[in-house]
Amino acid sequence: MVEKTSSLNTANSLRLYLEAKKLIPSGVSSLKRIAGFESHPIYMKRGEGSRIEDVDGNRFIDLLMGYGALINGHRNPRIMEALKKQLEYMTLCGAPTEIEIDVAKKMRSMVPSADMVLFCNSGTEATMHAIRIARAVTGKDRIVKFEGAYHGQHDYVLFSVEPMETGLEVSPFRIPYQPGIPEEIARTVVVSPWNNPQVLEKILKRYRNDIAAIIAEPIMGNSGVIMPEGDYLKQLKELAQKYEALLIFDEVLTGFRVAKGGAQEYFGVTADLVTYAKALGGGVPIAAVAGRRDIMEMVGPGRIGFGGTYNANPLSLAGASANLEVLAENEYSAYSRLHSLGGKLMKGLAEEAEAAGVNVSVQGVGPLFQIFFTDLPKVRNYREALTADDDAYAAFHQSMLEQGVYLHPDPFERITISTAHTQEDIDQILSVASRAFREVKAVVGA
Ligand SMILES: Cc1ncc(COP(=O)(O)O)c(C=O)c1O
């Protein structure tokens, strides 16, 4: 949070925010951009590699990285070049282009189970389409989603995203995320706790003939970062098959980030349908639904619809194509680097916290993780995430920001690094984290 007492000069950000609020409700077009800021968000101006600069000239190492989209950093030269080149041809046409085939081929070569691919523009659209496809091919209406998981802004998935009340673990409440979602839609969603196969099976039994799909973030990344325990993803797949539902992995966060083939490759479990966005484009707006050929081929005239003016627009495809090319270089060495640097950062943060006497669980994988301020050895589901200490996180965030490291102030967001981050960045982050954890200790006490 940026408080009046902050040592950071953010006068221009404050001025812009006050101006924005007169024109744009709450001042922003995506409410997460103000979540957790006490006074005003910080307005950014420029990005280069792992670094960003705000409108007051403050410089930061970026650990938010466009909410995980900027897998190759800000303004990656290869992506910039591809975009400039495409600008010489066209930005949008409304007819198919060859580059669509190029990106589909690249995705296929990286991702297990991506027999076929359809392009759209955001993670929200991708999960909306995947759910519709699942409903159409199974002829069923209901979906199972997990408590604390986020799949975008459409009504079908906006239940129990960040509920304050959760109910019993055997029968979690189904809480709409915001007003305006029809009660009829609520009927189509069943909420299950994460990492609890027994409750999931109970739900599947109860709605035996009416679950079209189980939709899961294979690594939960919107309640901090929560890993699947043991064989949990495999169990999801087996349960989906047993109860004749499709398994949808929402890899909007994990796709092209945790491995070249995303969480499917990382855990060795494939889903029937998979959604991508964020790191697919490396900073341009693009998303995709991919999956099994027999399912994907049900999309077509007179069958399941799919459309959009900006779907597969040449500009985004050009950016995505260059982005995937950069990731593929030197036999995808980007991924070992992301894991190695991110792993060092995770380990270093845990050590600094311990040295300061602050209890934390740093959890996730190198390219995607979060720090929970908790006495628990590990956070295993949303309910446990809710018990983490928000004041401690706020103090940590404030100190890191003042020392030049940009994190999201909302503890349910996460840390993502990029191929542009360096060992020097990691060293710098860890050296300032040591003070940040000591400041947390002073705030939260023994
Ligand atoms: C797992 C997941 N799914 C879907 C979405 C929605 O994507 P978008 O913001 O591109 O609509 C997000 C966004 O954060 C996400 O993290």
Give an overview in words.
Helices cover 38% and strands 15% of the residues. The chain is an alpha/beta fold and 446 residues long. It has two domains: 11-74 and 332-444, Alpha-Beta Complex (Aspartate Aminotransferase, domain 1); 77-327, Type I PLP-dependent aspartate aminotransferase-like (Major domain) (Aspartate Aminotransferase, domain 2, 3-Layer(aba) Sandwich). It has a seven-stranded mixed β-sheet, with helices on both faces. A four-stranded mixed β-sheet has the order 1-2-3-15. Strands 13-14-16 form a three-stranded antiparallel β-sheet, covered by helices on one side. A hairpin with a 2-residue loop joins strand 13 and strand 14. The radius of gyration is 21 Å and the shape is globular. It starts with 10 loop residues before the first helix and ends with a helix. The relative contact order is 0.16. It binds pyridoxal-5'-phosphate.
**Broad shape:** globular
Describe the biggest sheet?
7 strands, mixed
The name of the CATH architecture of the largest domain is 3-Layer(aba) Sandwich
CATH topology of the largest domain: Aspartate Aminotransferase, domain 2
Q: What is the element string, with H for helices and E for strands? A: HEEEHHEHEEEHEHEHEHEEHHEEHHEEH
Which compounds are bound in this model? Answer: pyridoxal-5'-phosphate
Q: State the secondary-structure class.
A: alpha/beta
Q: Largest beta sheet: what is the strand line-up?
A: 4-12-11-10-9-5-8
How many discrete domains? 2
Low-pLDDT ranges: none
CATH superfamily of the largest domain: Type I PLP-dependent aspartate aminotransferase-like (Major domain)
Rg over alpha carbons: 21 Å
Amino-to-carboxy terminus distance: 23 Å
Per DSSP E runs of 2 or more residues, the count of β-strands stands at 16
Fraction of residues in helix: 25-40%
Mean pLDDT: 96
In terms of DSSP E residues, the strand content is 5-15%
CATH class of the largest domain: Alpha Beta
Helical element count?
A: 13
Cofactor: pyridoxal 5'-phosphate
InterPro entries: Aminotrans_3, Aminotrans_3_PPA_site, PyrdxlP-dep_Trfase, PyrdxlP-dep_Trfase_major, PyrdxlP-dep_Trfase_small
Keywords: Isomerase, Porphyrin biosynthesis, Pyridoxal phosphate
EC number: 5.4.3.8
